[in-house]
Specification:
The structure is a single chain. By secondary structure, this protein is α+β, with helices and mostly antiparallel strands. It contains 2 helices and 5 strands; from the N terminus they run αβββββα. The protein has a single domain, classed as SH3 type barrels (Roll). It is found in: Cell membrane. Belongs to the YajC family.
Length: 111
């Protein structure tokens, strides 16, 4: 088999290599993870907590917009579902997590 594969030999470390080079690499990895945490993970968790609090605080009569862009007024609330009145005699049922934002009172009449 050695006919097709050349043999690889380990090389000794150069004599002038600075000691502690491995610690620098580990420190750099820790620094990169810390930077990633503060740039990406932490803000996303904050947005998730704010959305969960907003969904938990929904009440009958709130005017909301769904993640699909449908505007409506909350008429019924279950544990996992919300019924929105979007027009006269038209009610749609959505999951609570599909609510994107709560609008100020009177927004639907202004549109």
């Amino acid at each position: 088999m050695s006919f097709f594969i050349s043999q690889a030999h380990a090389q000794a470390a150069p004599a002038g290599a600075p000691p502690g080079g491995e610690m620098f690499q580990i420190g750099l990895l820790v620094l990169m993870f810390g930077l990633f945490y503060f740039i990406a993970i932490r803000p996303q968790r904050k947005r998730q907590k704010e959305h969960a609090a907003m969904v938990a605080a929904l009440a009958k009569g709130d005017e909301v917009v769904t993640s699909s862009g449908i505007l409506g007024k909350v008429t019924k609330i279950d544990d996992d579902y919300v019924v929105l009145s979007v027009a006269d005699n038209v009610e749609l049922k959505f999951q609570r997590v599909a609510i994107h934002a709560v609008l100020p009172k009177g927004t639907l009449k202004a549109i």
